[in-house]
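Hey all, quick one. A colleague (J.T.) asked me to put the zinc ion job into the tracker so the inputs and the structure tokens live in one place instead of scattered across chat threads. No bug as far as I know, just bookkeeping. Sequence used:
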Amino acid sequence: MKAKEVERAYSWARERYAELGVDTDAVLKRLVQIPISLHCWQGDDVGGFENLGEGLGGGLAATGNYPGKARTPEELRADAQKALSLIPGRHRFNIHAFYGEFHGKKVDRDQIGPEHFRGWVEWAKEMKIGLDFNPTCFSHPKAADGFTLSHPDRSIRKFWIAHCIACRRIGAAIGRALGKPVVTNIWIPDGMKDTPVDRAGFRARLEESLDEILAARVDRKWNLDAVEGKLFGIGVESMTVGSHEFYLGYAVKHQILLTLDAGHYHPTETIADKISAVLRFVPEILLHVSRGVRWDSDHVVILNDDLLAIAQELVRNDHLSRTHIGLDYFDASINRVAAWVIGARNMIRALLIAMLEPFETLRRMELERDYTGRLALLEELKTMPAGAVWDYYCLTQGVPVAEAWLDEVRAYEREVLRRRT
Ligand code: RNT
Ligand code: ZN
């Protein structure tokens, strides 16, 4: 599409939205300030760079064997850089502890430090982006029997506690180095395939471990702690120790961040409805925007009603200012760079559509019990020219408009990804 055409369509769209009282120029100024944290693990199917010889564990599964996955930190950064160049706005990158750079040395998880993430920090500085962090409590011999922080064996628990403390410190060190706070998100796979008899025991041990982890002094200015609950995983069908209720209570009690992953609830349960509820009681939240298909399958995020509902909840009551938006999915059956671009562009597009809503008008209708008007307007909004505003946003942010980004990913696949053998 030619720039002229994009601009002409935008000026028409701007008038259409102005008729509803929506200022599209102001919307775009707001949109550009919202970073999305791109998850490193889409780039290599949650592989990491440790070479401990352990495959992906913890009930996680990346399916597909599309060629060209990143095998080194350099490749992963190059791929992410390509993706980021096709996404409008300035974003963040979310790394896991086992993506450290160990240069062939065997550094166990309780021994890692900021020195192993220097390459990431240098890259982030060059890219002028923030980073986020995660302990990796899976794909490790000490997690092979499915338990980490709630393990009945104190020495195993101690190992994972040390790992999580190390991660919080790395988070703070990275945050300080970049001048941008890091969210360090704890997710553990602990759970049971079959019905346990002592759920309380596992949960008591998890709480105790988390208390020890949080007791370590880490600068809250640079590291924000988050905890992520889950309903079930493969091989963990009957109980997840760190369930939603467990972490909701824990996060409220300690006033830390609660992570809501879109794939971690019953299939008909959505996280959109939880945002306004939990933000009454926790200071901030982290979202893992994902897409479950029949189960927590971590499909690439698409622009569907679920995603729009999340974006609307964030935008309508300015929950955005207390929400960190991260993506969490891994599809190994399509081009992995494209998977990042598709999911991130959709997240931003959903936020844009939500910001283009005449919220005050809709709210007034609701308060006046004019549900007819509310429904009618919400439906009309669906075919308003948001696409023209989106194209204009991409144009002004210097990224490809509409499907043109795909040509760049195809060229990158030909010239770079296909040569990795
Ligand atoms: C797992 C959680 C967790 C992971 C990442 C890799 O179910 O969603 O966030 O996906 O830590
Ligand atoms: Zn998640």
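Adding what we noticed when we looked at it: The pocket of L-rhamnitol (ligand 1) is lined by residues 41, 46, 60, 134, 187, 228, 230, 261, 288, 328 (CB under 6 Å). The mean pLDDT is 97.
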